[in-house]
């Protein structure tokens, strides 16, 4: 998990005393707002639970009036502390740390605790309504959704809840995967964007893992909803012969056969990204990016308008970093840069400018986790400086192949009134799978 403090605000208590509020982002999205005193209490609890030697050092209290430079140094120190805790393999997955984060989310947005009906999208935009609570975690909601579609708990590791944004063209953009401890309803509400939704999708990039779900009805239907959407949106590139076979399987209602055919189709199972800009092979090239099968695949439009395809193998990437620019009056700019070894064994930096930089980084992490041999002990990269026309503030969002990274902004949630719902998983005969 990647925590950053991208900004500070000024707060005022009931007695008129002013204090600093730190705006914490989780993998690029607003997560909570906390005071130094709250973070100090976090630190004390973690030290009591894990021991002082296992918890990173915490910035000491200051009893003097802080200058602007001192305040900025304090922000960076607190950010460094949160990043180290969030990357610790023991602390970051502990129940006590998850509880601290959940409490901070609740205290920041003050959502009224109540039972709700939440709408969860499937990949083909069908809807699933679940009975849940405003303070239920993503892990809890995923379990409820799985139970509703009759998916056994043993298969939960192969699916996850994602934050997505519905697009005007009828499609959607994946923003990021939700961590197990997060409160999805609170997160949706905090984004104040009516086009954002929660979606249930497979949680991996390796198509061979589909085999684990093909033996059960619910698994087939989840995979089919995603594969069908990828074919409809031209995210995959079947040959003419493959396309005829896929359409024939669809028309015959043979979902399992359809999925088996999709395994052979180019770009099946890849994560697709919105149109972005790449500096390879020339600066400012419009690019379509997709990640999967151990590669970052880019369809690049050259200045001559010629389209060329570039494949960057993940096992030839030494390290990567995410940088953020915060202009005074413009939208936040994100980019992911990676150091790549080309076919001539020369190292070069390649940069992709995309608001989905954290998601791209998490995909690289996912591939390195699925293929452990790809992850190396590379030195950590220096943080990238902010452009001179921007406010001097950097998220220090940087990583190597052995670290975790994440995604970026947009959303609101509304309570969903229950209606006559026909389960999208009902009335499917065995011969249709």
Q: Helices and strands, in N-to-C order? A: EEEHHHEEHEEHEHHHEEEEEEEEHE
- Briefly note the structural class of the backbone: alpha+beta
Gross morphology is globular
| Biggest beta sheet attributes | 9 strands, antiparallel
Helix count equals: 9
Proportion of residues in β-strands: 25-35%
N-to-C span: 37 Å
Q: In words, what does this structure look like?
A:
The structure is a single chain. With 433 residues, the protein is of the alpha+beta class. It contains nine helices and 17 strands. The protein has helices at 36-50, 68-87, 95-109, 138-148, 184-191, 217-232, 240-251, 255-262, 357-370, and strands at 3-12, 18-26, 29-35, 115-121, 127-133, 159-166, 172-177, 196-202, 271-272, 276-278, 285-292, 295-301, 307-313, 317-325, 333-341, 347-353, 398-400. Strands 9, 10, 11, 12, 13, 14, 15, 16 and 17 form a nine-stranded antiparallel beta sheet that branches. α7 (240-251) runs antiparallel to α8 (255-262). The longest helix has 20 residues, at 68-87. The radius of gyration is 23 Å and the shape is globular.
Quick overview of this protein structure:
It contains nine helices and 17 strands.
Helix and strand layout, with pairings?
Blueprint: E1 3-12, E2 18-26, E3 29-35, H1 36-50, H2 68-87, H3 95-109, E4 115-121, E5 127-133, H4 138-148, E6 159-166, E7 172-177, H5 184-191, E8 196-202, H6 217-232, H7 240-251, H8 255-262, E9 271-272, E10 276-278, E11 285-292, E12 295-301, E13 307-313, E14 317-325, E15 333-341, E16 347-353, H9 357-370, E17 398-400
